[in-house]
Write a structure and sequence with these properties.
Elements lengths: L6 E6 L7 H17 L4 E4 L15 H11 L4 E8 L5 H14 L4 E6 L18 H16 L16 H4 L2 E3 L4 H10 L2 E4 L6 H18 L17 E9 L3 H7 L1 H15 L8 H7 L2 E4 L1 H10 L9 E5 H10 L10 H11 L10
Parallel strand pairs: 1-2, 1-9, 2-3, 3-4, 4-5, 5-6, 6-7, 7-8, 7-9
Helix pairs in contact: 1-2, 2-3, 3-4, 6-7, 9-10, 11-13, 12-13
């Protein structure tokens, strides 16, 4: 049997205009539908202290509980828990509880939560040095997960954490952070839209792989070092359509909002940013299914190194809203179906059995 070239996933911010109960039901339908389409994994973002239209899952480990019960095969992930504002011991216990409910399908991303740094104060945490706070909490988290005495006490957890240790991730934005992820035995999720694949993301990937080859997970607890392997997950906006002109038309809402964002970052007039520049700078793969597959194949930060190719649902939701759909999480399913049916197979992917 030919090995599958990568695993196909999706990443949702859980943006919705629905009430909380309905929003949770939508999230379940999204994962169930993706499982039926053969997706291998789905990641849910954490957004702290925002309204539902920005993200309706401030506590993703709680939100994924019903998802774990309603699904059987698809892996479920969080990208990422804002570790500096989270008690690492409680996080271990919560994550292992969810992993038990999911029967060993949880992937846990850990990060400083750049989008949430301005909200650290609300949690009683200083934002002066997020990286240092992350490192301190990660050390406690890994020691606790390995069953070591917690914070110098005689207490320790009594659940085997070796399975979850092999499904931990970090989302680094710098070369040194990527090297630290390798030394800690974590996988790397990458895909910030405005980071150029060749000049910014590829160096991060190369540094991570080089560090793993050079020294390996030397800072992971000894129990985990023989078990963990390097893992790369590339997050991209993907929108296959009938033609590239049709794709550009369907992406009008996304292009307009991104044009303003890019102009603000670059300090230029938004009118000076054309549609193709937006798509290129946002790492968005679109056009016909064949054109979309070719764009994924040509992305220097994806294949063949990426173990996971992960489609962002937000752009798919915006297209459906532009067609008159209500802004809900599960409107993304039509776009996920096109990716799984028409584009991913052109790259050698086959649905999970």
């Amino acid at each position: 049997m030919t090995a599958r070239p990568f695993r196909l996933g999706f990443f949702t911010h859980a943006n919705t205009t629905s009430a909380p109960a309905e929003a949770n039901e939508e999230l379940v339908r999204l994962f169930v539908g993706a499982e039926e389409l053969g997706y291998d994994i789905g990641f849910l973002a954490q957004h702290l202290l925002v309204d539902a239209e920005e993200g309706s899952a401030p506590s993703p480990l709680v939100s994924l509980g019903p998802v774990a019960v309603a699904t059987d095969r698809i892996d479920i992930g969080v990208s990422v828990v804002t570790l500096p504002v989270t008690d690492p011991v409680q996080l271990v216990q919560d994550a292992l509880t969810l992993d038990g409910i999911a029967r060993g399908r949880l992937h846990l991303g850990l990060g400083t939560g750049n989008a949430n740094i301005a909200r650290y104060a609300a949690y009683g945490v200083s934002d002066a040095d997020p990286a240092r706070a992350f490192d301190e909490h990660l050390e406690v988290f890994l020691d606790t997960l390995a069953g070591h005495p917690i914070r110098g006490s005689s207490d320790r957890i009594h659940t085997d954490g070796t399975g979850l240790a092999q499904r931990l991730w970090r989302s680094p934005g710098r070369v040194e952070t990527a090297r630290q992820a390798a030394r800690s035995g974590l996988g790397v999720l990458f895909g910030t839209a405005t980071l150029d694949a060749r000049t910014q993301q590829r160096p991060i990937i190369d540094a991570y792989l080089d560090e793993w080859r050079s020294v390996g997970p030397i800072q992971a607890p000894p129990e985990f070092r023989p078990l963990v392997r390097p893992r790369l997950g590339g997050i991209r906006m993907i929108h296959p359509a009938n033609s590239r002109p049709e794709a550009i038309d369907e992406l009008t809402r996304f292009i307009d909002s991104s044009r303003r964002r890019l102009a603000a970052v670059s300090g230029i007039n938004a009118d000076a940013v054309d549609a193709e520049q937006v798509l290129r700078q946002m790492n968005l793969k679109t056009g016909t299914p064949a054109e979309t597959a070719a764009a994924i194949r040509d992305d220097v930060a994806l294949l063949p190194d990426a173990d996971y190719v992960i489609a962002v649902t937000g752009v798919l939701e915006q297209v459906e809203v532009g067609h008159g759909a209500k802004h809900t999480v599960d409107v993304a399913l039509r776009g996920l179906e096109r990716i799984a049916r028409d584009t991913a197979p052109l790259l050698g992917w086959t649905p999970a059995a």
